Amino acid sequence: MNKLKNKLSFKLFYNDKFVMFFSILVAFISWIYVASTTQESTIFTVTDISINLSDLTNDLRYFGGTDVKAEVKISGNALVVTNVTKDDIYVTSSDVSFITQPGEYTVDLVPKKIGVKTDYHFESSVSPSSIKVFVDRYDEGRVMQITDKITVNSVAPSSYVSQTVLSRQTVKISGAESIVNSIAEVNAEYTVDTMLSDTTVVKAPLVFYDSSGKKISSKYINADITEVDATVQILYVKNVQIIPKIINIPELLDLDSRVIQVEPSSIELAVPKNSNITSVSTSAIDFSKVTKKNNAFAVNVEIPSGCKNINSVETADVTFDTSGMTEKNITLQQSNFVIENQGPDQTAAVANKSLSVLVIGPSQKINLLTSVSVTARIDMADKSTLTEGYVERPVKIEFKDPFTQCWSEGTYTVNVKLSPKNTAAEVSSSG
Length: 431
What we know:
This protein is mainly β. The protein is 11% helix and 48% strand. The chain has 5 domains: 2-34; 42-128, RNA Polymerase Alpha Subunit, Chain A, domain 2; 139-232, RNA Polymerase Alpha Subunit, Chain A, domain 2; 236-320, RNA Polymerase Alpha Subunit, Chain A, domain 2 (Beta Complex); 325-420, RNA Polymerase Alpha Subunit, Chain A, domain 2. The chain has helices at 2-11, 16-37, 78-81, 177-182, 363-366, and strands at 42-50, 60-63, 69-76, 89-93, 103-113, 121-122, 130-152, 159-161, 165-166, 170-176, 185-192, 200-209, 215-216, 221-223, 227-232, 234-247, 260-263, 266-271, 279-286, 296-302, 308-309, 315-320, 325-333, 337-340, 346-350, 354-362, 374-379, 389-399, 407-408, 412-420.
């Protein structure tokens, strides 16, 4: 039986795979033995070690420098040093007591052992042996306005670059106090080199400047955003008419282009794409103020929202042709007054004996007009609860057919006397 076992064991050495495995095993065991018993020191380099600087006083903190990685050479038994990792070594500053004010400093670095693996020696100093750090107090945050600095080099014909719209108007900046306080301007900067024909959105990075216009590095500060979406609005130029807005026009008066002249009659307007705008209006002109002498008005041109006035025309001159008109004074009597919307307990009567009204209209109509064809309406709706005293009321002048093309110049008022509608008579009796 023993002979059979010896024979089988000996046969294994004729197997190439077994011989290879056996050789490697013997070599590994031999290496471990030699490495653990030899007194020869092995040098090994540990890399990618984090730097942990000592705390500062006076509310100071480090800005920059701590992101640097260090390395150090160690020596000792091969089995030990080859198993030391970056987590077993602590790299820190040797002395920071001299740092008492904000500024830039050079700090020396030293290595220390941490953990259970301590049977080795530092063969050299830390590399790098020192680092530069910026020290300052921390500013919790300052909100600043973002300035649009988007540049468009070219646009398509008949196109107009309108004001750029930023996705954010402000940015919050925190970090090194002295750097944050030195920021005077925050710009969203971008240059569009291609020809634009439609509204375009670009991402514009934020750039910081001091009061002298010098660019400030963002190395020691943090912003809640680093860029904004900038919408470059492209509008399209159109020639549009200026249409005067006129109120209180007599019902049958025909105010065509022969009667009204507008200067300028049109302007160039930049409008959004596919806009159906063909004209713009002016501020209102009260036609009751038009007379033979007062027939020209300078009024504001009202630009629709989202459009741009290319010609910068802010006012237009509107002139009424009154050459075919005649003015005439009409005296209204008590019979011309009509009081409306009296209160249920109110009696109202016009105190004025008469009212002189200046009337203007086509000559052939004015020549025939008399007070019989004029009505002066007085509305008491907002005074209907008063039952005694006098009030001043506006008068609306109306013209009966065929004088509806005429109008009164200006505004008129009358005094109205109020008294109770029903007054009970006092009855006395004697005994």
